[in-house]
Every structure is written in C-alpha cells, then in structure tokens.
Sequence to fold (207 residues):
Amino acid sequence: DAYKGWAVKGMIHALCGEDAQMRYAFKNLQQLRGGKLDPAQIAAEDRMHFCSIAAQLFADLASPSSGFFATNFENAFYLASFPTLEKMLLEAEKMNLDISNIDPVLITSTKEITRIFAEDNFSETEAQAMLDEAGAVLRDAKILGTQLNIEIDEETFDAPRVIYSIGVPFDGEKTADLRFNLAERIAENIKRIPSCFYVTFQPMSCQ
Fold:
C-alpha cells in the first residue's frame, strides 16, 4: 500500500545516503498518516548519522505508552539519549509496563551515564551535537551504518568519562585521519568540550 511504499522508499534513500530524498519520502508518509510521524524515520536518520534529529524523533514518538519505547530503547541508547531514557524508565515503572525485553545492562548503563552527565552539568543535546559532528565526518567518508560501543572509564581520568567509540571499516592510518577531521570539527563547532564524554573512531577490528 501507499504507507508501506513511502516507508520503504525512505529507508532505501537512507541506505543510499540520500538524506533529502529520504525526508521527502517520510514527509509524504506523514501526510498520509494524518500528520503523524513514522517510527521508521528514527532508524533512517540514525542510519545516516543525523543523531540530533533521530533523538528528537525518538523523544516525540517513543513514550513508554506508545508501544515503541522498548523496541527502540537500544537505538536511543546509542543516540546518547540517556537522561530521556531514564525519565521514560521511571514513567514505565509507575505505569507497571513490561520492560523485560530491554537489556538490563543497557538500563544500568543508562542510569550510570545520566549520573555522570549530571555531575559534569553536561546535557544529552550537547552529546548529540558532538555525535552530529562525527556523523558529518562519516558522511564525508561515505560510511553508512557502523559498529558502536559505549564504555565508562572510571580509572584513567580524575572523573568518570563516557567513551563513545564508532567502528569504521578502515585501517589505523585512515582511521587516524577521521579522528583528526572530527577533532577539527568539534574544535570549530562545539562551544564546550566536556571532560565526561569523548567521541572517537576505531577500526572495526579493534572494537
């Protein structure tokens, strides 16, 4: 049907790295749905590394009672939506909703990272802005879809630091070039460089 057709077109354009065409498809789908956004656009924006847009879509669509919360929890975790997720978890508990299909490790990490952010007065929107810069580097390098890893380093630095590693299909030398490009973009476009959150690229073989 027309609904499925526009959704499929949107995802195909995302897979091809065509953001304008992807959003055109989802705009048409939204019109067919009477103005309602479609959850598939979260995955499409995420696939193309538009972190802030995907995170806002999640916040708009995936309330605990929506039916999309648990199924999109992991995606939102890697969109750095930690405080939003913790708030939604509390809402889900108050509503006695079943969240047993959410990985408990992700739940524990969400709460811990939210605490780390709060101690450094650092927001998820600031983290997402940094990930947007990483996304721009990835799009420039024609990389769509990556391996992601988030770790909490409590030993190396004076305070806990969240390490967000993005796996790329390159060797060490080309990965170093991507890191340099990311550092330049962050220095130019990010007003405050936090101590609690660090974004980097790693060769996939090293993750």
Q: What stands out?
A: The radius of gyration is 18 Å.
